[in-house]
Amino acid sequence: MTPIEILATVFVVVGTFFGFVATVGIVRLPGLYARLHAASKSDTLGSVLSLAGIALVLGVTTESLKLVFLLVFLFVTSPTAAHAIARAAKEEGIEPIGEDARLGDEEGEP
Amino acid sequence: MTSVLLAASGGPEVTVSETFSLILLAAAAAFTLFAVVLLYRVVQGPTTQDRIVAINVVGTNTVIVIALVSVALGEYGYLDVALVYGLLNFVMSIAVSKITVEWGGVL
């Protein structure tokens, strides 16, 4: 393990943690908009951190350039897709859940 | 010219240590597990948009798993596969969210 690999390990582990946060958020949170909130932010950060970790190890090569392309692309498109989904849900008339909804409760759905 | 051909066929001369390779494979396994757990929301999700969100995150996890496995095993050609998966995932999300509102202006 070189020092750069230890740094990359930290990046990948933190990225995996954020992937876990996104998964828990999507499975457990009540209502569509709360799930979108978990998906768009945590998943973007988790994927970007993981890809940055392995791009660090490869150094300045064609492969790390491909990884940086993928990273920038995910960083731009993941929130864009979440925005499009949220707008589609709003145009379909799905309302956000109210204050009386509980965690894990499907009553918040329209 | 030789180096260009090598870069096109074989990939870089970077080799990662065995411990780091195992860490990358463990992270890939974790992301695969997250994708399997997300299938609960795909099956259960009350609205169509819930399913789209979950499938979108499953696709992102697939991209990350391909990239992690590619570096862990030294098969750098898989990075191109990961790029194409990322592009297709984005197009799928936009197309399905447009279709669900009957071709309304989503973006």
From TrEMBL, chain A:
<feature type="transmembrane region" description="Helical">
    <location>
        <begin position="6"/>
        <end position="30"/>
    </location>
</feature>
<dbReference type="Pfam" id="PF03334">
    <property type="entry name" value="PhaG_MnhG_YufB"/>
</dbReference>
<dbReference type="InterPro" id="IPR005133">
    <property type="entry name" value="PhaG_MnhG_YufB"/>
</dbReference>
<keyword id="KW-0812">Transmembrane</keyword>
<keyword id="KW-0472">Membrane</keyword>
<keyword id="KW-1133">Transmembrane helix</keyword>
<protein>
    <submittedName>
        <fullName>Monovalent cation/H(+) antiporter subunit G</fullName>
    </submittedName>
</protein>
UniProtKB/TrEMBL annotation, chain B:
<keyword id="KW-0812">Transmembrane</keyword>
<feature type="transmembrane region" description="Helical">
    <location>
        <begin position="20"/>
        <end position="40"/>
    </location>
</feature>
<dbReference type="InterPro" id="IPR007208">
    <property type="entry name" value="MrpF/PhaF-like"/>
</dbReference>
<keyword id="KW-0813">Transport</keyword>
<dbReference type="GO" id="GO:0005886">
    <property type="term" value="C:plasma membrane"/>
</dbReference>
<feature type="transmembrane region" description="Helical">
    <location>
        <begin position="52"/>
        <end position="76"/>
    </location>
</feature>
<keyword id="KW-1003">Cell membrane</keyword>
<dbReference type="Pfam" id="PF04066">
    <property type="entry name" value="MrpF_PhaF"/>
</dbReference>
<protein>
    <submittedName>
        <fullName>Cation:proton antiporter</fullName>
    </submittedName>
</protein>
<keyword id="KW-0472">Membrane</keyword>
<feature type="transmembrane region" description="Helical">
    <location>
        <begin position="82"/>
        <end position="101"/>
    </location>
</feature>
<keyword id="KW-1133">Transmembrane helix</keyword>
